[in-house]
Fold this sequence. Notes:
Helices cover 0% and strands 54% of the residues. It is an all-beta fold. The chain has one domain (3-109). It has a 5-stranded mixed sheet with strand order 1-3-2-5-4, with no helix packed on it. A 4-stranded antiparallel sheet has the order 6-7-8-9, with no helix packed on it.
Amino acid sequence: MRLVLSGGTHNFQLFEPIARNRPVQLVAGTGGARLDPVNQKNPNETVRALSSLWSYGVEGKVMGISTHGFVTLRRAGPRWDVELHGARGDVIASCKIPDSHSQPTPCTKTKAD
Length: 113
């Protein structure tokens, strides 16, 4: 298993474990009425760049974006292409997640807020 899809929080998150034997976790929670901040210390921050984090005992890096919208997954040969779209359908960020245990391409924010 290389990718875990989750929902339930009100923002977009991509968690990339340091250990390559663990799956990448994608949280697509951008459809809620209220968006959760991606940085508790700065609630007005809408994008949190890839930063180190421990999640349930697993070390990794996380990227978060707080915006309304939806996520699409597209199979592209040996990888998954992930796109975060705004509520109007514009692409806000994109990521490439390989099937192998190689390192995923970090998400790239493609649109300014």
